Structures are given as C-alpha cells and as structure tokens.
Amino acid sequence: MSKHEIVFYPVANGDTSQVITSNGRRILFDFCHCSCGEDPDDPVIDLNSTLKEELSAVERDYFDVVAFTHADKDHISGSTDFFELQHAEKYQGNGRVKINTLWIPAAMLLENATNDEQSEEFVILRQEARYRLLEGKDILVFSHPTRLDDEWLHEKLKERGLAVTARDHLFVNAGTIVPGLSLANDGVEVFCHSPFIKHCDDGDIIRNEASLVFNVRLDADGEYFDYLEVGDSTWDVLEDIVATTDYHGNMDRLAWDIYNIPHHCSYLSLSDEKGGKETIPKPLVEKILLLGKPNSYIVSSSCPVTDVKESYDQVQPPHIQARKTYEKYINKVGGRKFLVTMEEPNANQPKPIRFEISNSGISLIKAAATGASFLASTKPPRAG
Asked: Domain 4-377 sits in which CATH superfamily?
C-alpha cells in the first residue's frame, strides 16, 4: 500500500513543511530555523536537529528538492548554515545537508543588495542559485522574465561561450507541471500556479507577489489527494491565480485536501480589509476556500491565534479575524479542522503536525506532548 506523508513544523511565524512520498522522495518547502528553538524550554522546534534526525533515520544526507517560496527571513532563516551550497567551499562539509535540486522563484535571482547586505542570507542564496543556473544543473527557476535575461543571464552565458538559450530548460512557467517528479514514478506531481512573469518584469520586485504557489498532487493507489502549498501571497495575487486558472480550465488544481494558508494567517491573504469580527474574503479568494474537499484540513504555519480582546487589534499576523474566516469555510466544505502549527498538540509543547496519506484517506497523526503519536482521524476512500 502506498503511503505518503506531509509534515508541518512549529517554527513560530515561519514556514517549513515537507512532503515525503511512498518511494522515499523528500520535498522540503522553505526553511526557518529559529535560534530560540535550541532552548529546550522554548516551544519553537529545533528545526536543524529535527530534520537531521529524520534524515539520519532513513540514512540520508540530502533532500531531493528544497523549494524556497521567496527570500523573506521567515522562509530562509538559518538555511545557509544548514545546507551544503555548491558555489563556495566554506558552505560545504561539516555535516551540511545536500540539496539535490533547488527550486526558487526568478525574483531571487534578480534581487539587488547594498554593500551592507552582502552577508545576508538572501544574498548567499542568490549567489547559490546563480551558480547552479550558470552551471546548468541541480536547479529549477520559476518564471522566465525578460528582465532576468537582459540584466544578467544572457551576458553571463555569452561569457561562457554558450547560446543565450542554453539554460532555458531550467525554467518553469506558471500553468505547467514541474519536471523531475511524476505520478507514475513517484506518486507525486507538482503543478506551478505562480509566479507569473509580470511579477518580476513590472517595476520593483515584491517578494510576496513573486513567491511560489504549487498544487502538490499525491497518488495513493489510485486515490488522488491535493496539497495547496502557498507562499506569502496577498489576496490580489490569489485572485490573479484563480482568474488565470479558471480561464485555462485547471480549477481542479486549486482544489485541496490540505491547504497551507499564506502568510501566517494574515487577513491580507483574504482581503484588504481586516474586518471587525472576521475578514470577508474577496470573491475569487472565496472560490479557493470553497474548493476544499470533504474531510480536508487548513494549516496555519504561525504562532497561536488566540480569541481574546487584544487579538482583534493586532497589527502583525496571525489575525484572529482571518482564523474565524478559515474556520467558517472549513466547516462550509465539510472539512475536518483548522490547525495552527504552534498550537498542536498544545501551545506549550508543540510538535510537528503529521498527515499520513493512503488510499483509505488522510490521517492526522496526533503527537502527544510526551512525543508519543497516535492515529487521530481518518476518512474513507472517495468513490470514483
């Protein structure tokens, strides 16, 4: 029997999730190691130790794919200390974890940096991505804006005596299946929703607008399940995605069994108005919420979202108004639960949220505070 796993890690207002396929492929989305997690009394997980222990248990020192949805700190923090990078020896060896294939949005190649920012992690990752792209291996870049060609890539390729089209095969456009993984061979395929070329070609790069958005489809012995993995997209980007997806007849790629909601339960991923008691989603964003399947889950990678008076005036996410909206829609579609990474199984000792996916359905593997696990829920297979 095929069994896949999706794991969400409690890294405060940060993102790290992992898809582990039945044949052992590992896809890591974002990486946020918080130094406070190294304190055993802090509820934030020690992500470095956790991931290395998980890899060691299966005798690995690599991920098949590491995808950085964008270059904000809460999506890359600690990555340049944890991963082995090919572009410089000082980032190699010493127990670093290898990345077989790096996935990045084109915006990460284009970002400018001042002299004071040269040691910042986004600059180091930009150097790594540029190196891999020029070498022509171990990377996929999402969207192919002319700005990238004009400002950097074509000149560098010419310096190497290469045609300006020599790296075109390493670019993936929105609305296509990502190469390298397949339902037939791996039980998983990834459909790219965003970024669009306009996110990088129109003026200044805004990381959230240009972040990666994927449909991850898993095949469990003929039963198909969809994980909607969304970077920190705002409501207007999500509306663009819905309109474009609908136009091309691909709305099934926005259906979800598990929805990793964007930007740590921010109301700005639903609307430009927070609302008093709850956020009213924009019409096309509401379409995504209504595409949840029966027995589905919504996951907020965030700090606890508490329903107390002070929360309604909170400026930074998570926002209680957004939580109430997501809970409303998970009930509307017959879903199971809205989960918060820093609340499971409780806010004092959160543990990774683990889902097991098989042809009998999605099972939430609840972790007790002591570290023991048990099967919390499952669902029968769908007909057809």
From this structure: Ribonuclease Z/Hydroxyacylglutathione hydrolase-like (3.60.15.10)
